[in-house]
Amino acid sequence: MFIPVPAYVKDNAPREAIPVANGMLIVANVLAFWMGWSPWWAVGPGSSLLSVVTYAFAHASPWHLIGNMWVLLVFGNPVNRRLGNAYYLMTYFGTVVALGLFASLFADGYLLGSSGAIFAVIGVCVLLLPASLIEVFYLALFPITLIIGLIHRPPHWVFWFIRWDKFEMRAFWAIFLVPLLELWSLFWWGWNWTNLAHLFGLACGVAAVLMLPTQITMRRRAAYASW
């Protein structure tokens, strides 16, 4: 088992633009959970048309919510500043609707949570901010610790069985690492729609970048767009 927890995206970009859209999404998710969401919000076989959006604001537990919102905060803020509020929301909700429609038509169970859209945000970050540094904390258990130990010899024998540390990597490498982790989860835990939704969301992020106007995708360190 390998559990990565992203901590920070160091993109060296100007901070004048406030990521308003991302903040609104985080607040909306927290409020939806705090006020109590209905099981009817989930999307799946026979669910209502409205569920193709509402599922993204429903989380199964506080830990589910906290994990998703943390990753959205880490990756969403730099991507929001890069795209501007309007294009950021279009990318986010475009992924939500696309994944919701796919799940309602083909899934054999019900899907809820914002992780699919968050993986789309990660995909945009990887493609538009490829040189940014991502600081990642991780927890690894045997047998993954053996692979890590061969790359970086552990200082203590116990780290051959359980290991925790942090590392930095260029965002570019996440385009390989993220699908690899999701495919590994499918192999380790078996077939499930959650990992497939993550991969679908990542693909939506790539598609969104291809559809964005060139003044957004080709800009590097210019002032970020607003509404």
Structure description:
The chain is mainly α and 227 residues long. It has a single domain (2-217), classed as Rhomboid-like (Rhomboid-like fold, Up-down Bundle). The chain is 55% helix and 12% strand. The chain is built from 9 helices and 3 strands; from the N terminus they run E-H-H-H-H-H-E-H-E-H-H-H. It has helices at 20-35, 51-54, 62-83, 85-106, 115-128, 144-151, 174-189, 193-211, 214-217, and strands spanning 2-10, 133-141, 162-170. The chain has a 3-stranded antiparallel beta sheet. Helix 3 (62-83) runs parallel beside helix 5. The chain is globular. Residues 221-227 have low confidence and may be disordered.
Task: Please name the defining characteristics of this protein.
mainly alpha, Rhomboid-like fold, 55% helix, 12% strand, disordered C terminus
Instruction: Report the structural category.
Output: mainly alpha
The number of distinct structural domains comes to 1
What does the main sheet amount to? 3 strands, antiparallel
Distance between the termini: 42 Å
State mean pLDDT (0 to 100 scale).
87
Going by CATH, what is the homologous superfamily? Rhomboid-like
Low-confidence regions? 221-227
Q: Taking strands numbered 1, 2, ... along the chain, how are they ordered across the largest sheet? A: 1-2-3
Number of helices: 9
